[in-house]
Fold these 4 entries.
Entry 1:
Amino acid sequence: MVESVVLQAEMGDLESLATGLNLVWMLTVTFLIFFMHAGFAMLEAGQVRSKNVANQLTKNMLTWAVGILVFVAVGMGIANNVGTILGGGSGSSPLTQFGLDPSVEMAELLFSAVFAMTAATIVSGAVAGRAKLRAYVAYTFLLAAVIYPVVAAMVWYAPGAEAPLLESLGFDDFAGGMVVHGVGGVAGLTAAWIIGARMDKYGDDGSVNIIPGHSLTFAVLGTLILCFGWFGFNVGTAALVIDTGEFVLGDFAIVGRVAIVTALGMGLGALGASTVSLAMNGKVDTLYVANGMLAGLVGVTGPTDLITPVGAIAIGFLAGAQLPLVFKLVDETLKIDDVCAVFPVHGTAGMLGLLIYPLWSVEGTAIGSGVIAGGLLSIEASAFAPQFVGVATITIWTVVATAAVWGAFKLIGQARVTPDHERDGLDLAEHGVDTYPEFGQPDIAADGGHSSSVARTDGGEQPLRSDGGTTDGSEIEMVTAIIRPDRLGAVKQALAEVGAPSLTATNVSGRGSQPAKMGQWRGEEYTVDLHQKIKIECVVADIPADEVVDAIADAANTGEPGDGKIFVLPVADAYQVRTGKTGTEAI
């Protein structure tokens, strides 16, 4: 009797230990997946223009803020109930998920929610630069409440049924290559098609204008954050560390293979995109490498538990290689303005991985031999048809549902901002902020508008003074110099040495004798004929202007075209704000 009680106690302790380990692992990877939102924010912010950065960051934050509430309150319940109905089961689940137990069930709910929010945030990158914030938030609400839950119900969730609908047909999607990324990519492409291209993307003759994003640094940082979080996304799906019924390894029995498949997909995606970029453009495009890493990860995400490492190498490379080709097709042939390339990164890459994985299935028949277990090919022929059916079903549902929502917004004039707001940038129009105020226009026009008198610098008549006189014989002069940014330090030192340390420096851009350069954005070349310069303004009174000019000229000279120019203008008067002094005493 005593031994029986002790045995029961030991079994209870083991079950509690197993449950605790499973929960710790599940929550750890859940937090890791949540951190991917930082990656999406940086990746998308880097690929949009500086005037739309705050809008893109805001959309990423609101995706989570709105989506988590809607998915917990409605979406998860719809997924469970729709899954049960489609799977032929009986019974129903509560629509609102607030009544779950505070341990395992709520942890599983949060785990499901971070997957849903990943699908939602992908869409924002496709419609960047022209979608109204309210329209995007409303679509996020509907995606988290209905569109994504229906897809998840067909593949993952069907309590009370033997299996979800598509799973019962043999469709496999382990970590969301199609359920999460495919939905996000297809929805993004559909929304971008419905809402239309940015106003300056395509010319009247159908030509494609290249619109570079404002920061490759942000884009690459976001990519690497996403890659880090992706280990939680794929490896985390192996959430059952210990089977609590038998006290043996659960999904962790394959966790090593899942991890190496994820890492290989990431690396080979970058190589695939690099190879095609080099073949197309003669250069390895940085953004294609970054996007290729993500495309490779998406490619192996769906079948990550079902493919051999050789399969990860093949699928990762192909997923990366298709990226430049599909982006070019969407951008130049279909004329759909997918700003952040969400369709080739998340859409076609996810489809590709799930459709061709049976060539390298761990459950297939090995063909050939290789140094990595599983052979060069390991074909599971019976899996092709179910994978095609699953991918097609999810694609059709996503296109129809997304087109209906954005089509309705467009019909009532709420899909995109006005042309004036688009030209000014969504940061100001939608949020009233300037992400980079130091490099933009001044916030206040102190003169109340444009001046009616224009200074002549071509040798014509001198400009009028406000007191009716002229500037002839002025003792105050302004020396304005346009120089290379890297010569600013030397010029400051030279001015200090001639006794004119006071100056104003401004970041400007312009063109003159310096030859234009060719830039590249996703492999497409564009002309850069506005060069970055520094404008220095130095007002002098008791120091001869020619000495200031000589000092600047000597310090700024490199002997190459583009060194800049110096202008000397008379100044009518000066006023020192602090002391009230005027004229030469104010200088």
Entry 2:
Amino acid sequence: MATQNFLIELGTEELPPTALRTLAEAFANQFEAQLKEADLSHQGITWYASPRRLALKVTALNDRQPDKVVEKRGPAVSAAFDTDGNPTKAAMGWARGNGIDVSEAERLKTDKGEWLLYRQHVPGQAIDTLLPVLADHALSKLPIPKPMRWGDKDTQFIRPVKTLVMLFGDRLIEGTILGVASDRVIRGHRFMGEPSLTLDNADQYPERLEREGKVMADYEKRKALIIKDAKAASDAVGGVAELDDDLVEEVTSLVEWPVVLTASFENKYLNVPSEALVYTMKGDQKYFPVYDTNGELLPKFIFVSNIESKDPTQVISGNEKVVRPRLADAEFFFNTDRKRPLIDRLPELDSAVFQKQLGTIKDKTDRITALASQIADRIGADKAHTERAGQLAKCDLMTSMVFEFTETQGVMGMHYARHDGEPEAVALALNEQYWPRFAGDKLPTTPVSSAVAMADKMDSIVGIFGIGQAPKGSDPFALRRAALGVLRIIVENGYQLDLVDLIHDAKAQYDDRLTQKDVEANVLDFMLGRFRSWYQDMGYSVDIIQAVLARRPTKPADFDSRVKAVSHFRSLEEAEALAAANKRVGNILAKFEGELPGTIDSSLLQEDAEKALAAAVEAKVAVVTPMFADSDYQSALTELAKLRAPVDTFFDNVMVMADDPALKANRLAMLHLIREQFLNVADISVLQK
């Protein structure tokens, strides 16, 4: 079999920029799966993507499938022939289905008997007929939520398809995909270079497209060039460009020939909080803001053009004209909003609905204020500042700035509160109430901020659960993120808060609005369930988390201490044996009927092994009891691990289920006492080897 490089390029109208990488990677993965299923070997697949194309190059693809022999087993010989040795209907039907006579069948002998067998030689197909089908199947499996039709065609894809190229070496693979016949023609840049090129060989891609068509089809190459040139541009103006990966990805997906340029705006706009300016630059215009070495915004921005202009100053001027009205709007909103203090907007929150059954945002504000005040008492936050922050928490939603630039909520509240002369802790809390916004995000920096942030999140969780809209598949109110945020704030700040208390207090703010009877229990289960995903993401194994969850500790900081203690215990040499012993004890105790003695009766100890274990247990209980009182679980488990030797000796030499009921109960009481010591931390019997 011969091998050649294979190219497939699908030319389209502009593809959605936020989905371009996903589509390209999925195309490569799906096509590779199709090749594997078709038994076509190759040495790798490289994907390419630009706004108007998806392409794959398969290196050293075989030109045909290998020949293979397919074994088709027939009926057992005992059922294939009658007593006279003539073929039965079953045998003849099987043979006819394979296009042979029964006499042509082979015999397959196995341990379970003898069977008729037909070995069919299946020649491998050439790729000419296979590749269009495989590519079509791969494209049909792309993650496209809303496919579209175009013209008078019945075919559907994410965008209209204009061209199709399929080349195996220098040979055109003929076929039709998504209503377009394969050709050698690819399209160049809309405004530069050759508008179209005819490829002689798959190996000419993507170099000729870049050289003659002014299209850089290599996505990663475009992205790296944008980053390199943007850093060079920011260095040239003595600043640092903010190159968020999500925005860099989007910009990479918007251009075919990236040209990085630097533009400016008037210094006067720097009087507006930088967050509002950055929001419009990044969100609306896809520009990269530039900061000085102290983190202050400079009156510069970097943008990526899709053309190499003979007069770049015209392109720069055009972009400056585009962004100026947006910055002017931000300046106007900022100056207008500051004419009224935030607190004056509090009554206006009654006109905005939080959730139909849960009331207005003003209702939510009142609940947050009351709940945050209770939390403040428990974590040592300034109560007056916390209540003030609760009252102001949502007031910036009524400002012109936040109405126009929604992502500035919170941060604008902070700026307006500072302008109004509110205490700094109050101003910070207005911004930090939304933290953490996503996994790994920063946490509130003060107790006041933490109290308001937890109150806001707990109010949403309990309220939505309370009206029967707990998240199942989708999570429109982002309750999973809110629950994880509460847990992180408590654990990472070391707050000694109990989820039971938080949930109860949050529910109490709702009076009779909630319709679900078991809301407190359901919310507790939901929040404990967040521990599993969180600690798995941190690298803890599922069985460690399950061991702690089995005890249902409702204080997040306490939960964290237990997980770390069990993780350390599992690393000890004695852990596996003691986990097995705990499982054995649990099984024995589960079968026992009756009431166990509360203490060990030393007069009933007969065997040396049980006397030794009783003495060891008594000594360890004395040592670990104060450790449990101090929540020093790691030290306690380390001490309990030393019981391995006497426990092993006990099980090797003592009959637990003795005939004498008193003797049996005493031995079970001792085992129960041992298990209870471990259960003070976790159920280690669920630990896996």
Entry 3:
Amino acid sequence: MKFRGGGGATRRSWAALAALCACFFMVMLDSTIVTVAIPAMLTDLDATLNQVIWVNSVYLLANTVPLLLTGRLGDRYGPKRVLIVGLVLFLGASLWCALATTAASLIAARAVQGLGAAAMTPQTLTFITRLFPAERRGVPIAVWGAVAGVATITGPVVGGLLVENGGWEWIFLLNLPIGVAGLAMAVLLLPDWRPGGRIRFDTLGAVLASVGLAALVFGLQNAQHYHWGTIVGPIGVVHVVGIGLLLIAAFVLWQRKTKDEPLVPLGLFANPTFSYANLTYGALGFATTGMFLPLVIYVQSVLGLGPVASSVLCAPMAGAAGLAAIVAGRGMRFVNGKTMIMTGLAALAVGTGLIAVFAEPDADPMDLVPGLIVAGLGIGLVYSPLTAAATYGLPPHLVGAASGVFNTSRQVGGVLGSASTGLLLQVGLSFSVPEAARQYAKVLPPRYADEFVRRITDAAQTASQFDDKGPQVPSDWSPSIAERVRELATDAYDLGFTNAAKATLVLPVVVLVLGIVCAAGMRTPTGNAKNLDYPRERATP
């Protein structure tokens, strides 16, 4: 069956949208669901903090690097075929993740899972622009955007329930029933649209973008792990980051030069709204990914909440996002989308700031709820109008490339957010935990103080910082001193981590402010209750 865009929406179109949303929900859920399982993974897999951060970052990276290419693959082979291949790959990798027994194996499985997600994501937006005519696309895009927003912040909630009751493996096993249902729906409901002509691939562009982004993220993510020094032989962290930046610059220059099916048709950016929408989406991805890492570890390791309790704490945030997404979807008919986008970004920044302000070692978890609700409202307000702005008047022959670019922007922001906040958190711990240890060491006899500081500093770099037993105490210390040292070690770590987390949360706020500036330059569609003000497209011949 060949499908050609431009016709009116039918019941089959809405059923197909349900299949797309099931696939997209699963992809977005997995971008944040791992964060709540970090403490459990650290102990069960005997992993370091850097390794477990990579479990999340490698998924984002593998989901980001191929997006430009997979968007074009959909243009060439048909979005249904590419989506189904990606979904099968994603499900197989999810099972591998659940069966992993080492951090290295889990990281490898998450990389494959990310590749599957990269194959699916651009096709979902491509299908929406084909299934629904431009003048009726507002509601489907609102649904798609709402799925993205709700899934992103539902991840920690669902993850906490699964980790507490079944173990961290179940956050990956959850994908299997959702994915199988999505696969059946995709096979039965999605039209097998195929392009009429052949599309050539920009191989050099794909290599430059992939290697450049991978090098940049690898350098940022591992900078503190290698102490900003040598990685292997004469190659150091600075060299890897520099190579990544140079390759990305070469990619941009190549896209300007090549005329033969570039990976990123620069004509897309002739429309300033598309450019600003991508920058804004990147800022949103950075902030939503970056805020969860320090937040989840803080509430579990410092406040002592279990996975279920931390899930309950995040539940108001998810509920607020869902409510705001509904309001945004309906409000797009009456309110300028730019107003909602800027308001949502500002609310997310304010909510993140409130969380940072009220985070203390002895804080009542309920003190964080107002900030979480405000942040959730902000996330829910942004996705739908931002997606509508980015797809405003896209030429049909550039839909695949545009959806690949747009989703890449979010993922690039997300992977840089994960890498940057992970780096800042590790750097912060290396300073704040030893400083806190020195403060608490003053109450110990001098003969124990130096050893106390050294062991706390070592524990801050390993999984033992999350162990309830605390750092090991020399056997020749008296039981009373050993018990006192363990109590002080817990207090020192709690203070040190809290200070590091508070400082780390400043970065997403700064990026969100930049996102608001970018959003101010967009021209967004508005309309009456029946139709959004989209320009009409001609049917694909």
Entry 4:
Amino acid sequence: MLDETHPAHGRYEQMLANSATAAICAGPDNIIISWNSAAEKLFGFSADDAIGQPLSIIIPKKQRSAHAAGITRAAESGTARLAGRSVEILALHANGTEIPVDLSLSMWTENGQRMFGALLRDITDRKTAHDRLEHLAHCDLLTSLPNRNALQAKLTAAAGSVPLALMLLDLDGFKLVNDTLGHSVGDQLLTDVGARIKQAVGRDGYVARLGGDEFAVMTVNCVHPLYVDQITTRIFESLQSPFELAGQSIFIGTSIGIAMSPADGTTPEQLLSSADLALYSAKGDGGRVRRFFAKAMQSRTERRHRLGSELRHALARQQFELRYQPQVCLKDGHLAGVEALLRWRHPDHGLLAPQTFISILEESAIAEDVGDWIIDQACAAAANWKEAGLGSLRVGVNLFPVQLRSGRLYDVIRNALARHGLGAEAFEVEITENTVLRHDEEATATLQRLKNFGIAIAFDDFGTGFASLSLLQKYPLDRLKIDKSFIRNIDREESDAAIVKAVIGMAQTLGLKVIAEGVETAAQEAALKSLHCHEVQGYLYGRPMLAREITEAFIDQPFRKYGNDR
């Protein structure tokens, strides 16, 4: 193992005999003079084969010239750049394979000559673990696509230096699949969607999954919107055919937001933000469309942000108001109830209707507090109407999604009713398909508890959501509210009349009452009466008004239609 005639023999004989680390010594001429048993195991060369050979037998061919030059410089100058340091390098095994090793190099003078010693350890396991961690850090484990970190790295390398396009994709209808068929089916759907997108894009782009049902496509050296539009068209077409999963044909679509560099941003953050704003615009336009980023989108977002900041103070500053719209019994014309509708008296913009702020409010931190306030105010109004002689009017309140999620709703309503001396029959909650689908399990439990207490439950905007029919049996409903879009032409369009007739017939079979919204003309009223609709609501009977205006309008005529006397 050691050339006994060499002066290094005595110094290193004991070390080499006991070390489990590969130890190699070489002279200034780069010739190996010692080689221990651990080196035999690591490199596959016996000591007899290695001693006397140049150290380059364990150096990969492409590094040999640089290695020899380094040894020569060190021998001549007396200093070695790597001496005293630990570095990771690739070394050559006797069978020709390269193995990763950790190298600690030392240099000393022996009898006037520069001597070199190396301790080497196999770090294949460490390298494998590192590579695995690198893979995990940059790969989406579900779809095997690159993940958000990988996309970020790509954008960082390319943004600002080459023209590129970034497309963000969000699936339309994915949550319904997860909620109805389960997460395992949802996971398989995401995998299949990712594969289709990648196939559609081909070599033209870099496809990543960012998380949830959001994907991204990046193309470089792309400056023409028509080229990007062609890619998005291929993506849309790839998702047109159904996915066959769990014995069902599942149809899924996508919305796409597009940002171009450098016009829409030169940093990853700017491009992601611009593409996200474009995606938000695509979703807002009904989904299943592509939208390129425009500066106006940023302006709208900034306005929404300002509005959100102002909303957080609106409740404390008593800027919210309730309006109440009459609900009339179609059979005899008496006032059966009212729907409480939220308004915001903005200090600069005046009285704002819900469509200008409700989507921001329902996602804000004060949504549940505002919901509590609405419930209390509606109960207080109902108590005042009862005391004024209007009888026990039913007051309907629209719910925010957070109210069904938190688990507080039952106690909030029960306490408000008790505080104002009302029974459960005086209150009705109104839900929409989107509200309950966001929090399916929590919604079902909360609604059933309210139903058991005697609170009526109305399904608002019925007919506008594609899953409405399946929800009729799933949730404990009392009343359907037919959306005004079906009422607008009911006296002129046979198809609309047929739809309303079918809904009323189905509701009767299920033991549900029906309210038609948006009734504005006597002709619409007559058509609904002929179809045996139970109740109606709309401008024909009164616009949304203050609580005291309800009292003034109906105190002397609680059993007559408001609109007919205007």
